[in-house]
Amino acid sequence: MNLSYRRGNGVGIVRVHAARLDAAVAIQFKDQFSAVAITGEGARDQTVLLDLAEVEFLDSSGLGAVVATRKMLGEGRILALAALRPAVDKVMRLTHMDRMFPIWPDTSSCLPGQDRIQAV
Amino acid sequence: MCGEPRPPEVIRTGEATTLWLLTGGHAVGEGVMRIAALLDAAGCARGEVEDVTIVMAEVLNNVEEHAYCGQSGQTIRIEVVVANGTIRCLVEDSGRALPNGPLPGRRMPLADPAAPDSWPEGGFGWAIVRRMTTDLGYDRREGFNRLWFTMASRSR
């Protein structure tokens, strides 16, 4: 599990380099996200976009970790998601969390500052 | 021991295929992928295989985290039967029993979109299992937990 960071489109883009975001890596994911988006180079981004293009599978622990990262950002900042693979999309819909996050088809379509808008 | 090949893991329609895994590290993820590969080779449709992986991951995580309290090296036995348009699964472990009463997860945790601080970080697992399966059942027999469930299977 690894995260990388870049600026693009006026937002901070955090890409998850892992095929599975699951119970085995949930804590690692939260720690690395904090190191990038809270104390690291993405600390000043108002909108953080989580690029999930490489994540083929998300379980409920991985979902819990994504919710935890949303809470880390606090009020006034936004966590958006991009590039959901079919199994990830299925879990988001089943748990109704697809209504909680702005979700974009890919990183280039994300618009900064858009909160709670279903973009797909 | 050499020269004695292990029987290949294959799913034959109507017959039970048994898999074992030992808890710890990425064992659950790897076990789920083994099951997915077997179902795929047996001709199950991609969407159904995906559904089984989602449910199986939740069930096996629960066994590892709660029945075995996160201990590594504990045995989980899994049985899969593909027959008559269904995939039937049985998961057996010798960890702690589930609490008495109905299985958890009758409701999906709710979140208020306007208050991210209150969003749930857990409680999704059993609700996902309930939503995606039929015939979900559990019993405790001779020191073993047995959880079984059925899912739809459409061949390609």
Describe the structure.
- The complex is a heterodimer of chains A (120) and B (156).
- Chain A is of the alpha/beta class and 120 residues long.
- Helix content of chain A is 30%, strand content 25%.
- The radius of gyration of chain A is 13 Å and the shape is globular.
- Chain B is of the alpha+beta class and 156 residues long.
- Chain B has helices spanning 27-41, 46-67, 125-132; strands at residues 17-22, 75-83, 86-93, 134-141, 144-152.
- In chain B, strands 1-2-3-5-4 form a 5-stranded antiparallel β-sheet, covered by helices on one side.
- In chain B, helix 1 packs antiparallel against helix 2 and helix 2 packs antiparallel against helix 3 (125-132).
List the helices and strands and how they pair.
The complex is a heterodimer of chains A (about 120) and B (about 160).
Chain A: E1 2-8, E2 11-17, E3 20-21, H1 26-38, E4 47-51, E5 57-58, H2 60-73, E6 78-82, H3 86-94, E7 103-104
Parallel strand pairs in A: 2-4, 3-5, 4-6, 6-7
Antiparallel strand pairs in A: 1-2
Chain B: E1 17-22, H1 27-41, H2 46-67, E2 75-83, E3 86-93, H3 125-132, E4 134-141, E5 144-152
Antiparallel strand pairs in B: 1-2, 2-3, 3-5, 4-5
Helix pairs in contact in B: 1-2, 2-3
Helix amount of chain A = 25-40%
- Percentage of helical residues of chain B? 25-40%
Percent of residues in beta strands of chain A? 25-35%
| CA-based gyration radius of chain A | 13 Å
Oligomeric form of this entry? heterodimer
Beginning-to-end CA distance, first to last residue of chain A: 27 Å
Trace the largest sheet of chain A across and list its strands. 1-2-4-6-7
The beta-strand count of chain A equals: 7
Counted beta strands of chain B: 5
Provide the structure class of chain A. Answer: alpha/beta
**Strands side by side in the biggest sheet of chain B:** 1-2-3-5-4
How many distinct helices of chain B?
A: 3
What is the N-to-C order of secondary-structure elements of chain A (H for helix, E for strand)? EEEHEEHEHE
Q: Calculate the mean pLDDT score of chain A and round it.
A: 93
